[in-house]
Design goal:
Number of helices of chain B: 11
Number of helices of chain C: 7
Shape of chain C: extended
Strand order of the largest sheet of chain B: 3-2-1-4-5-6
Oligomer: heterotrimer
Largest sheet of chain C: none
Structural class of chain C: mainly alpha
Largest sheet of chain B: 6 strands, parallel
Order of helices and strands of chain C: HHHHHHH
CATH class of the largest domain in chain B: Alpha Beta
Number of domains of chain B: 2
Structural class of chain B: alpha/beta
Largest interface: A-C, 84 and 61 residues
Shape of chain B: elongated
Helix content of chain C: over 70%
Distance between the termini of chain C: 15 Å
Chains: A alpha/beta (about 325), B alpha/beta (about 270), C mainly alpha (about 220)
Chain lengths: ~325, ~270, ~220
């Protein structure tokens, strides 16, 4: 990346906008970069673009840091990551804005999520509890946060039907977040009195001590429905097989590709990869959240196009420079 | 035949695991390119360089992961490398590092603090991994037993990842992903990985992209590495049991399918 | 207030870490990021206490109320404190304290904890056998391909199976490594990984911007 045009463009851009002369002039096809960069700045039709670029750059460069040279201050080798970040954020925000304004956004059906309510209803009919596991990772894992978000929705349904809910967790912070989410769900459904603080409980910090405890619970209480949503590791099959043996209806979701086969073998529905992250938006039906999903899809399309271009260029031996654009992203 | 009480299956698995203890069978172990690449990368390291050996596995996966760390330690010390061990696993990680370094015979004549250091564990691996890029001492002010790093001669010359020539990550969980995305991608430190068999398929993509120089997949990968290092140990001896259980599972799948097809034929005939 | 303050904290820390990624570590922005990372490790350490409080409260309530299986809860409580307390005391008081070789913690870890955990993990072999027997059926052409591929990979990953595969003409192990593991497998893994990474990034952005608040029980 350091040798790529992007680096020089960024370096030249900073120096020009900061009003300082270039330390070293860079040439592209015999044209100095400073000259190339100056063209859009001179064009009155691009006045807004210039203003926008300036405000973005100024926001990123604190006044106190102006004394330092740009190379000491900024990681220009990560400029490609910066571009990706800007494109990604813009796509998410633009789609969110559209969704807020009432534009209808199509979202394909995710059968696993549609089945959640049905599965809780089954537990209610059978008079047996619902077991929800928000993965076994810490709260700093996005998968766990996705699991906790889904827990909020599930807790609303169990509160509505007054179905017992059991949420074993492995980390204290997940415990705190889980308790907050479940309590809030019960309050929102007007069932604050029915909320039991031990619905969400810390079981064990060790993976298999946790698994042993939950498996024991499954065999003793025989929950009608088991929902696994979050980050799972080697315990995935131990949990899902035990749930299967206990006769529970099981729905799982994880972004861990290596655990997907186990869940697929033992559960009725399995959410794969990004479906898990889409779940909270899907279940909430809030336009603001759905906008985020569409933005994500847009960037995925861009990546697919970039991949196809890359495949073609590399296949024909012209992709050396192109590949360096993606270094360190 | 299509349905069988699962307890019969459990019994068969138990027998398949037990038989090789009584009648061991030795079959040749071939080396996969991923293991060979990892071995070659370690072999190509300069003598006496500093490396990190990461114990990111729980005691539950000792059978698969410990042979990897043991063989790696043999390999590093044979090359006279300085080894820094650490763990992102709260329960057991640091203790396992102690156990493995203790178990290596004194033939290498290595001294704690000079030739190897155990940094222990710190919570929140994302912050730990990126924080060490700035300064290892800011994240681990002391080693596992509470000795300040400033009192350990090895750490005088090691400030951050720039001073580490190679990282060998042995993991039974997703921390390997973070070592790639935080340490390899952002700091460029070469890295190899050993992982459980179930996680290994995921990491082929990382090897192909050059983010891992090589990969040890499960006990088979560990056995291959033991063979290459010339220290045949637990992984090589565990291969017989693993072979039989794999064959048993294939047999069970076959039986289940025969039952499935017979059942389907009976159904069809009943309809006619 | 209970929603706004966490959202503001999430935004500020998330934004600071995001921006600092594009600055060198020796700048003051880089230093802020290093400082946040140190704070996170410290806060992470304190949260372990929450777990101890929760597990003690739940189990103590069961023991006090003589609920079914209360005897096991007593064992749980004793185990927690037997493992934790001697490890907290400094080894200078007694060689039994601390976490060094010969300490109570070390003994419990090596001779109780490790074998128990390894046993639990080992049960996976039994469960995999049972799940494979039940789930692997050649119902459709796709599941037949899956079945055949899985069988071939299982054979290849063990010496006995590999010896069997080598009886056939053509280098089947090399074919499996090249076309299955480094071909089909890798492509699928990459697809899922890229999709999941984008999903995670999108969700992170929603959290940083305060759009996603369901994890706090809001929305």
């Amino acid at each position: 990346m350091c040798e790529s045009g992007l680096f020089y463009w960024a370096n030249g851009c900073f120096n020009r906008l900061s009003g300082r002369s270039l330390k070293r002039e860079i040439y592209f096809d015999n044209w100095p970069y400073s000259f190339i960069l100056a063209q859009p700045m001179r064009n009155p039709r691009l006045h807004n673009l210039r203003k926008l670029s300036l405000s973005v750059i100024l926001a990123l460069f604190p006044v106190s840091a102006w004394a330092q040279s740009s190379n000491e201050l900024i990681r220009f080798d990560r400029f490609n990551a910066f571009i990706l970040l800007v494109v990604f954020s813009a796509a998410v925000l633009i789609y969110t804005n559209w969704a807020k304004r009432g534009k209808t956004l199509f979202l394909r059906k995710i059968p696993g999520l549609d089945a959640v309510e049905e599965a809780v209803g089954r537990a209610t009919e059978m008079g047996r509890p619902v077991l929800f596991i928000p993965g076994i990772a810490e709260l700093d894992e996005i998968e766990t946060i996705a699991g906790i978000s889904i827990l909020g929705r599930v807790a609303k349904i169990t509160a509505q039907y007054e179905t017992p809910l059991m949420v074993p967790v492995r980390y204290p912070l997940v415990l705190a977040a889980g308790q907050e989410v479940v309590e809030q769900a019960y309050i929102e459904m007007g069932k604050g009195d029915a909320y039991d603080k031990d619905t969400v409980r810390y079981v064990a910090g060790e993976q298999f001590a946790f698994t042993a405890n939950v498996n024991g619970y499954m065999m003793r209480e025989r929950p009608a429905t088991n929902i696994y949503m979050g980050a799972f590791f080697a315990e995935s099959l131990l949990l899902a097989e035990t749930g299967n043996a206990a006769g529970s209806i099981q729905i799982a979701g994880t972004a861990r590709p290596e655990q997907l086969p186990f869940f697929i073998a033992a559960c009725v529905y399995t959410l794969m990869g990004e479906e898990l992250y889409a779940a909270s938006a899907y279940l909430s039906h809030e336009p603001v959240m759905l906008g985020g999903l569409k933005g994500q899809d847009f960037v995925k399309m861009l990546l697919i196009i970039a991949l196809v271009i890359g495949i073609l260029l590399v296949t024909f031996g012209w992709g050396d420079t192109y590949v360096t654009w993606f270094d360190a992203v | 035949m299509e349905t069988m009480d699962r307890r019969w299956i459990y019994l068969m698995v138990a027998i398949a695991v037990f038989i090789p203890f009584v009648f061991p069978a030795n079959f040749p172990i071939s080396i996969t390119p991923e293991t060979q690449k990892l071995y070659d990368a370690v072999e190509a390291l300069p003598d006496s360089c500093t490396v990190m050996l990461v114990f990111d596995y729980y005691p539950s996966t000792i059978a698969e992961c410990e042979p990897m760390t043991t063989a790696a330690l043999h390999h590093f010390w044979r090359k006279n490398c300085k080894v820094i061990t650490l763990s992102n696993i709260p329960l057991g990680g640091p203790s396992m590092a102690e156990t493995v370094t203790r178990s290596i015979p004194p033939q290498y004549n290595k001294q704690y603090g000079i030739d190897f250091v155990n940094l222990g564990y710190k919570a929140n691996y994302v912050a730990v991994l990126s924080g060490m890029g700035n300064s290892i001492e800011s994240i681990f002010p002391t080693d596992n037993s509470g000795t300040p790093l400033s009192e350990l001669p090895l750490m005088d010359s090691v400030y951050n990842y720039d001073d580490v020539a190679f990282i060998f990550e042995v993991a039974d969980n997703a921390t390997a992903d973070y070592w790639v995305s935080i340490v390899n991608a952002q700091y460029g430190t070469p890295m190899g990985c050993g992982t459980t068999a179930v996680s290994a398929p995921k990491y082929y993509a990382f090897v192909d992209a050059g983010q891992f120089v090589g990969l040890l997949g499960g006990m088979k990968g560990a056995a291959e590495y033991e063979m290459l290092v010339g220290e045949k140990d637990k992984a090589v001896s565990g291969m017989s049991a693993q072979s039989l259980v794999h064959l048993l599972i294939i047999g069970l799948v076959l039986v289940g399918n025969i039952g499935f097809f017979l059942g389907r034929r009976e159904e069809r005939e009943a309809k006619i | 207030m209970r929603t706004q303050v966490p959202v503001v904290v999430a935004f500020l820390t998330g934004f600071a870490l995001l921006v600092s990624f594009f600055f060198n570590e020796n700048t003051w922005i880089g230093q802020i990021s290093s400082e946040i990372k140190i704070w996170v490790t410290i806060v992470g350490g304190f949260t372990l206490l929450l777990g101890v409080v929760s597990i003690t409260r739940v189990n103590w309530a069961a023991v006090k109320g003589r609920k079914e299986g209360w005897g096991y809860k007593v064992v749980t409580l004793i185990s927690i404190f037997a493992m934790a307390i001697p490890a907290v005391f400094p080894s200078t008081w007694s060689p039994l304290f601390g976490r060094a070789e010969g300490s109570i913690y070390d003994w419990l870890f090596v001779y109780l904890d490790s074998p128990m955990m390894a046993t639990m993990f080992a049960t996976l072999a039994f469960y995999i056998a049972s799940a494979a027997y039940r789930a692997f059926r050649a119902r459709t052409p796709e599941s037949t391909i899956l079945l055949l591929t899985a069988t071939a990979v299982m054979l290849w990953r063990v010496p006995m199976g590999e010896a069997f595969l080598n009886l056939f003409p053509g280098n089947i192990p090399e074919f499996l490594n090249t076309y299955i593991m480094n071909g089909a497998n890798m492509a699928v893994q990459r697809g899922i990984i890229i999709g999941a990474a984008l999903g995670a990034a999108s969700m992170s952005l929603r959290i940083i911007l305060g759009i996603e608040r369901t994890y706090m029980g809001k929305g």
